[in-house]
Amino acid sequence: MENVKKRWISIYVENEIGVLARISGLFSGKSYNIDSLSVGETEDKTMSRMTIGVTSDDKTFEQIKKQLNRSVEVIKVIDFTDTPIHMKELMFIKINNCTENDKSEAFRIAQVYGITVEDYNKNTVLLQCTQSEDKNNSLLKLLGDCFGYRIEVVRGGAVAIESVSYSDR
Amino acid sequence: MEIKGTELFVKALREEGVDTIFGYPGGMAIDLFDALYDAGDMDVILPRHEQALIHAADGYARTTGKVGVCLVTSGPGATNLVTGIATANFDSIPLVCFTGQVARDLIGNDAFQEVDIVGITRNICKYAITVRDRKDLGKIIKQAFFIARTGKPGPVVVDIPKDIQNQLGSDEYPSDVNIRGYKPSTSVHVGQLKRAMTMLKAAEKPVFLIGGGVKIANAGKELTKLAEKMNIPVVTTIMGKGSMPTDNPLYVGNIGMYGNYASNMAVSGSDVLFAIGVRFSDRITGKIEEFAPNAKIIHVDIDSASISRNIVVDVPIVADAKVAIEEMLKHATACKTQEWVTLIQQWKEEKPITMAHYDGMTPEHILKSINDIFPEATVTTDVGQNQLWATQFIEMNGKRKFHTSGGLGTMGYGIPAAIGAALAEPGQPVICITGDGGAQMNIQEMATATYLELPVIICILNNTYLGNVKQWQKMFYNKRYSATCLKYGRSCTRRCQVDGGCDGRQYLPDFVKLAESYEADGIRVTSQEEIAPALERAKLNTNRPTIIEFMIDKDFDVYPIVPGGKPLTDMIID
């Protein structure tokens, strides 16, 4: 097991019934772990694009790419390992049972970390974070430290696209 | 012109050159069968069970090199194909399996005999799809045949809902295929190949390791030429056996768990291992870390995912075996390998595979008689000791075909595969080597063979046990024969440790009576002298099947054996 790390791939697949099952089944059948998978239609309605995050060693990752490539339903596999990309993940965090102080703290955090307060009422705040998966992870840790079990989280899985300049965002 | 889906189905089969269909009808396939009623140019074979049906189609495909076609109904008809689909997938056999499906508006309703066969088979076939629109029917069938037979061949499932079968639509069957996600490689990277050839020519102890890919690519003759031109010894996997005639002086034998001493030593001692069309499965590598420890490894395979999966290779080459070997022939020169070849020859002579240390009628006697009396007949095997002995002792002279479930190891494969092979080559005898266990997994096909007047000779090596598992229990499980005795009954103690059997009941069934009940010839052979006469008698049955039951000793085991997880050099010879 050499060089186990987080990696991202983007694949174009046929936009057909069963293709998502085929891809996820390929991962489970061969014991590859999917960290996250998101999928949606592209500019071409006959194609979908998936962004898949996996944690694996070099050898397994090579095998994953080959297995995806040989699937009839997969049109193209793009390895993001050495490619500058833009990546965002949508994450909603609801903070329940807030005191006035909690609410102010939540608003402050939102301001500092560039996330938005999407909604709130007397004792609940709803935050929306659209950041990279890593940044969302850090934020979650911070909010967990501040509000403990009172937070409720929904995450969407990251989507990524190649940069047009040379920078990683 | 508008025609029904079923009519387009028949037209499509005709365009694909299908002349034999292995079918079993049912409610959701009845319309497809109705359309075939008038197709006088297509032979519809009706086996007695869908599992046997698909193994027969598999045997037919392996014999002809064409795509085998299955047609079954929805639900249980479809699920009974599952083992056969996985079998064909593992051994890269081209099949197109048509399954009837409930009408589209009933899918998901738990309708009678509804099952998500595409969902079930997705991970054990090359491609699976439900036709959801009548206008796609022609395109999907065209693609199915193309995907099944090209690249690394394999089974494809096409699920056709009943309403689509009956719906009117275009009568057009496309002539071209273009699948954007599927472009099998048809050429070879010449630079990479030259690099490999340079490496090979510099070698002192080179070995060709040949797998089923060479047989599928029909590149046996080219391989033989190449090996002879370069004077390089050839080792095969079970699936590759027969790529080169087994009496060729450069042929060493099979590698692996039950391979011969010389082959395992040759691969382990090689300095360049040139592998073509193999998967490096655990059965051939033994302990991975100690596989061919001193060798640079070159690997040619049509499937890039097979390369550097189990064994990391030095030179990967993605190509069809035949294309690659033909290109290699252009650069081939004689190598200075005489010393190495002589050494391997010595190993071969010193430690041949033999059962001479056993008394009585051994499988070696039986299989060698088959070699003498049927030198060219196609051989199918079941799975277990019968299969291993067959891979060890059956001689391949370049004409004989040999079909075995090498990857999945499916018991019950032998008899139906022999039926498929016999259908592929009318009038030619086909030998099935099977055990008493595996024979009973598809014994109902005797009826199919009799009605179709097929000269299938079923050689049952009856040791009254599930012998291969029993051998492992004897060697590695302290003789605890758990659930391997086929005479086990109510009067037996569950914890059977009786080595060599007991005086329990008579073996059931009586295979001779069973043969007779199917109007086949039944012969029981109990001693070595009876082997040849029995086979000669079977040879005369040119239009009906024969069962020859060979009563062999329970204590015959398969040697050499490399225990699981051990390096190839750790063979137990006898």
Features:
heterodimer, A: 169 residues, alpha+beta, five-stranded antiparallel β-sheet, four-stranded antiparallel β-sheet, 9 strands, elongated, B: 574 residues, alpha/beta, six-stranded parallel β-sheet, 23 helices, 20 strands, 35% helix
Unreliable stretches of chain A: none
Mean pLDDT reading of chain A? 94
Please compute the radius of gyration of chain A using only Cα atoms.
19 Å
Number of helices of chain A: 4
N-to-C order of helices and strands of chain A: EHEEHEEHEEHEE
Helicity range of chain A:
25-40%
Query: What is the terminal-to-terminal distance of chain B?
Result: 70 Å
- Binned, the helix content of chain B reads 25-40%
Report the biggest beta sheet of chain B as strand number plus sense, adding barrel if it closes: 6 strands, parallel
The structural class of chain B is alpha/beta
Question: What is the number of beta strands of chain B?
Answer: 20
Describe this structure in words.
The complex is a heterodimer of chains A (169) and B (574). Chain A has helices at residues 19-29, 58-70, 100-113, 133-147, and strands spanning 5-14, 34-41, 47-56, 74-79, 85-95, 116-120, 125-131, 151-155, 159-162. By secondary structure, chain A is an alpha+beta fold. In chain A, the strands form two sheets. In chain A, strands 5, 6, 7, 8 and 9 form a five-stranded antiparallel sheet that branches. The longest helix of chain A is centred in the last third of the chain and has 15 residues, at 133-147. Chain A is elongated and about 55 Å long. Chain A starts with a strand and ends in a 7-residue tail after the last strand. Chain B is an alpha/beta fold. Chain B starts with a strand and ends in a 23-residue tail after the last strand. The chains are: A alpha+beta (169), B alpha/beta (574).
